[in-house]
Amino acid sequence: MKPLILTVIVVFFATSTALQSQEPSFPKAASDRDEAAALFQRLRNGQLEPLNANQSLDLVTSALAKADSDETRAALLRGMKSGLEGQRNVDAPEGWSEISRKLSQNPNRDISDLARELGQIFGDEAATQLALKRLQDRSVPGPERRAALRSLVAQQNPELSRILPELLTHPAMQLDAIRAYAGIRVDQGAHQLLTAYPDLEPSLQRAIVETLASRREYAEKLLAALREGQINQKAIPTYTARSLGEMLGQPFTDVYGDMNDLSSDKEQLIAKYKTLLTNEAVLKGDIHAGKAVYDRTCSACHILYGKGGKIGPDLTGSNRADLDYILLNMLDPSGDIPEAYQLVTVTKNDGQIIAGTVSDEDDQRLVLNSIGLQNTVLKSDIKERTTSPYSMMPEGLLLTLPDKDVIDLVRYLRTTEPVTPKP
Questions:
Q1: Are 150 and 123 in contact (CB under 8 A)?
Q2: What is the pLDDT of residues 247-287, one digit of tens each?
Q3: What is the pTM for the complete model shown?
Q4: Which sequence spans correspond to the domains of the chain?
Q5: pLDDT per residue over 95-105, tens digit each?
Q6: What fold is seen in the domain 343-388?
Q7: Architecture of domain 266-336+394-413 in CATH?
Q8: Any residues with CB less than 8 A from the CB of 172 and at least 6 apart, and which?
Q9: Looking at residue 48, what is its pLDDT?
Q10: Which terminus of the chain is more exposed, N or C, with fewer CB under 10 A?
């Protein structure tokens, strides 16, 4: 296995507080927050040779054996899990079998669950079978079932192709099940998702569209459904349409339309909305209705007042009082897009296609923020990677809203502090 600097760094920071009273088998610098921070900086600057992955995992496992508090154990386990995110077929560290047996029986659910999830990464068949059992048990709380599903997808468990169709009927599991179809190849996956599509609420329908755009064989079925009117053109977000256009080419644009048309006549559109959005009109807007529009159309990608998605820029400190700023960014979001928010598309060796903005990257893995989820991709699993000059934000967003909603949205965007709910 290649060296995993990130494993060591994550553990240093995850455990620097919890281990202050401990003396585990870590380098001396890792036992003190200031020294750990300095060591992290030296690692970042390439002034230290990275530890071998197996050596670092052995160190963490040794620390687990000596830990005398659940706080310390949980911090170490979270550090291990974070450092190994996206990894498969990792050799278990020395002493893991005995420690894992004890941790999986810990009455602290957080610790026992983390131990079992790590056991799956280390190829523990008993941990995998338990995850499969918990996933299918409707009496198990939703968060625990979803965690089991995520871990099984990460390990590409072949049993999921049998289980996923049934999970689509569980309200508590539907969204995660839909997302899981993107992570693994299911022979009849597109048919199963399209069959479920008509009976689902809009947010789940959009998740299906996004999942069908994640693999070519799925995308071809989506195109057929679009031709037949089973899925409406308006149900395909602009960023997803761009991915489908690149993947399927002319056959898709013949049905969906030329996406370049969305970029035409921006000056006329800006003039139109300036006429609508006079100061007098905006002041009469309904702030609470505007917040509802924002929550429905913007919050999945943007943070405002500390809440929201991390795909686009944080809007809290932006120049939202300036109408020109608002209109330019809504009608021409790709006009001057920072590199950090450009659309990155990766094609994995197994055919999965993932699009999003880069959240984190090191020499071994890439982390992409997508709508509603974050994807960690091993560099060794990437077949192709492209960066698009387009923003994930759809240019036609305002055009889909009634004038009243646009006025209310701009009224809310001009607020300077969180809006309290109506009594």
A1: no
A2: 898 999 899 876 655 455 677 888 889 999 998 999 999 99
A3: 0.65
A4: 5-123, 153-257, 266-336+394-413, 343-388
A5: 888 888 888 88
A6: SH3 type barrels. (2.30.30)
A7: Orthogonal Bundle (1.10)
A8: 142, 145
A9: 46
A10: C
